[in-house]
Amino acid sequence: MFNPETLIRKGLPKGHFKDVAARSFLGGITYLVVAIAVLLFVKIIIDGAPVLFKPEAPFVDLDFLTSKNETLHVFDDAQGNRHQLPAAAYSQYISQHGSATLFNEQTYSYSGGGIAGPIAGTALLTIGSMILALFFGVSAAIYLSEYAKQSPFIHAIRLAILNLAGIPSIVFGLFGFSVFVLAVPVITSTPSDRSLLTIPLLIGNYFLSFQGWNSSLMAGCATLACMILPVIITASEESLRAVPQGFRDASLAMGATRWQTIRKCVLPFSLPGILTSSLLAITRVAGETAPIMFTAAVAAKDDLPWQGLKSPFDILSSQVQALPYHIYTLAARIPSSEFTQRAQYGSVFVFLLLVAFLSLGSMILRAKLRSKLKW
Amino acid sequence: MGIVGTSAVLIFLSDRQSHPTKHLAEMPHEDPHPPEPVHRFQKQGFSYENAIKFFFASNAGLTIVILALIIIFLLKEGLGFFPGYQRELEVYRIAGLEFVDISRKNLTAHEQITSVLNRTYYAEINGKCAHQMRRSQEASALFNAYSDLTAPTRDLIVSNSQPDSSPSPEMIASLRTNFEKQKSKALATLPPTPHLTPEERQALIESIRSRAFDATDDPPLVASLTTEFAEAREKQVKPLEALRTTIDTFESAGSELSSLVSELTESVTATKEKIQDADILEKDRKTLLAAASSAEDPIEREKLVSEAQASLAQKPDIEGPIRILMERRPACIAAHQSLKNAAATVSSQLPNTLTQPEASRLLKVAHNLWPLFLADLEKTPQKITDWNHLKPVALSTAISSFITGKDWVTGGEWQDFYGILPLAAGSLMISIVALTLAIPSGIGAAIYVNQFASKREQSLIKPVIEFIQAIPSVVLGFIGILIFGTILRDLSLMDSLSWIPGFPIEERLNIFTAGCLLALMSIPTIFSLAEDAINNVPSAYAEAAEALGASRVQTTFRVIIPAAFSGILAAVLLGFGRVIGETMVVLLVAGNRIKIPDFTSGLGTFFQPCHTLTGIIAQELGEVPLGSVHYRALFIVGILLFAVVLIINATAHRFVNRMKQ
């Protein structure tokens, strides 16, 4: 590393120690951050993995993922054995053994059963909002990258995207609550008192009433879509712009129209990029709690979202459980004890696994894409 | 979609000139071939192609619409707050609550000083016999840990063994075995006792193990340590008698004012209720009249109007109660006078220092509070004489009392106050902690990864930090509440760390816990933006520096960092924006106590719980009635957040643009 002759004459260069010190200090900070992050994951994996996995075949315990969320009953029987049963199994036990032989009974809300309801709710919310956001976002990105020229309108759109991207999620919650829950129009025969504006329709006895969708899957999806829209637009525009200009020129030169060019020569090549970056957007949508607290989520629900409906469309106007809100409930509303830990760490572990899976997928896809698409 | 359409149409019109089909339609005359007949729609610009463009443009315009809707609806729900709050403050004044609050404020200050003095006194005594106190506390803690675990079963057995109950013998037996199980489990998980000798601990555990089942007295060691502690305290009480008397004198000096305040409180609350009832009736009447004016059927209208007339509220009698209030003025002033005299004497009698550091610190706090308290008392008689219930409350008063209000009190019986300061202070304190931790580590990591790390290190560090960004905030909050908070509390209980101000912490969830987690959350933002900024510095800079003989560190810190400075600043600002807008972590971890942190405890302030701007919205919006003043106050908080974050982002982007140039 050093010229031996110089070393003998002058010793180590003066700057060397400073160099090493600065480098190791910065390296120390960096690895400290990495170590803290890894420690957190390890802690959650250690506490959460036993809920989902078991030592003997088939190694995965799907019960936690596929059963509904229930209240947990903990009690001793006459032989002094401790039982932990979710509500349904508990009432079965009571009907078999009678309630006289139970001692030390304690109940823990939300801690029994599994998390099928929250998972289903989060899946529905994510799918709904991603469909909306991708539709509007990709269209907007196409306009920005393929049609737009310098104009005040474009400037305003870019400013709006920039500002939307910075708005705190709780403000989106307020927005979603005041707009989608309380103000958007619905067609109904019985307008509510708090309707902002009621317009009688000529068909039948129906009104177009600006009274909102109440707290529902629909309102939650719309709020989340608004929140994620700037992310989708920015990412999609980047992917569209990555397609070489030559593709478009060639297509236009062959006499194709603008739309044909976009459809055949731009979109197919940018689609993988768009989908990859929307995987990351999914992790954000799935993880947000604040926007859905007042617009869609409910702490406890007996049925899965698609059960007990009169018509399939009712699913849109019903409240759902959601995984992040469920974790909030578990962390904030019930005191932690040895009996609640299964639900708590299990939910967090499943959630983190989901997020890790999605972001890992996005990372791998992105790397693959980079090596594959080189114009 | 209406607005989208309009704005898109505008664009569509402005962009039309440049469209190819339009050019085609306007081809110059020298074209040898006659132009093909153009479809009528196409001539007007409504071609298939243009329709598609219009569709995309309207989707892009949707972003503007969403932003506009956010602003419009926040303002729509929020702006009604100020008139509503103005009316509430008006009632507060007319009913005389404000008058009572003048005295009540001094009473609270008096209570606060008394409690500080009492804490000083006990800190002095306990500090002098700290050893005995710790030993006694540890022994009791150990015994309590055992009894907490076994008490439920024990109680069950005792209640079943009563002569009048007739339990089955096998049940008693099973309970007994259960008890033994729990007992051995409890004995295996006893808390540590660093100040007891191992022999003492062993003896204590033995005595617990061999304890009679239904014994109610303490184990001998616990009892003897308690007596020992009590005796040690007894010895310390003597020399401090003078201080005790002084504190007691001061404490009793407030009793006159206190009884006066509680007497007045009752009467003004009754007046306030009357006024509020009248307000409600008045509102009903207006609704009825409005319904009447829109009713088409004359009979219906007549009915509604007469109903409105009937409900016409009698103006509540305010003057009577106010007169009674005014009559109590001299008594109020006299009570303040006597309190002031007592306070002045007591402050001169207090010692300046005490032997224990904690006691001295608290005494200093008390001494610092004193001048303020006396000055307040000085001004009070004037305030009481000047107070007038008919003085109007201006809208600006409502606005200024929102911005500078030190209380956020809601749902109380006395009076709701919406002051933003405690929430803003909480948000700011948490941000300070988070940024103090996140700026060095985020930027340091960015410099390291970009300048010093090898390719392999980069491919390890970057994904981990990116993954931190992907962790949902509610999961971080969960980690804070269940893991980090507990670790922090256990750390703060260790003797070797007691030199840190604020340790041992009172609350597991506090500003510091929340700040740490938010730091973890904002590190990825700061890291990736700062790394981008450093990466964007032209390589020629570094090459030139190295050619001049600068070492790697010199190049980095004297050339690259200054060149990337505005980009790094933007990264920090965006990190700040993320921290201040974060909801779930602070809602779960900040402790949710709505109070301006007590800055008298120095750095220990950071270990107090607080509440935040974002947290209050998330916590209270679900519970407030739609359209109430409280509901609107939450929207105003939302507007404030929105504005703050917009300003931060705008500044950050200005820095980014400067960097690009």
Radius of gyration of chain A, Cα only, in angstroms?
28 Å
The count of β-strands of chain A is: 6
Strand ordering within the main sheet of chain B:
1-2
Structural class of chain B: mainly alpha
CATH class of the domain at 429-660 in chain B: Mainly Alpha
| Count of distinct structural domains of chain A | 3
Put simply, the count of helices of chain B is 27
Structural account:
The complex is a heterodimer of chains A (375) and B (661). In chain A, the strands form 2 sheets. Chain A has a 3-stranded antiparallel beta sheet. Chain A has a 3-stranded antiparallel beta sheet with strand order 4-6-5, with no helix packed on it. In chain A, helix 7 packs across helix 8. Chain A is mostly helical and 375 residues long. Chain A has 3 domains: 4-52; 63-113, no CATH class; 116-324, MetI-like (MetI-like fold, Orthogonal Bundle), CATH 1.10.3720. Chain A is 62% helix and 9% strand. Chain B has 27 helices and 2 strands. Chain B is mostly helical and 661 residues long. A two-stranded antiparallel ribbon of chain B has the order 1-2. Mean pLDDT of chain B is 81; it is low at 1-29. In chain B, helix 6 crosses helix 12, helix 19 (455-470) crosses helix 21 and helix 22 (539-547) runs antiparallel to helix 23.
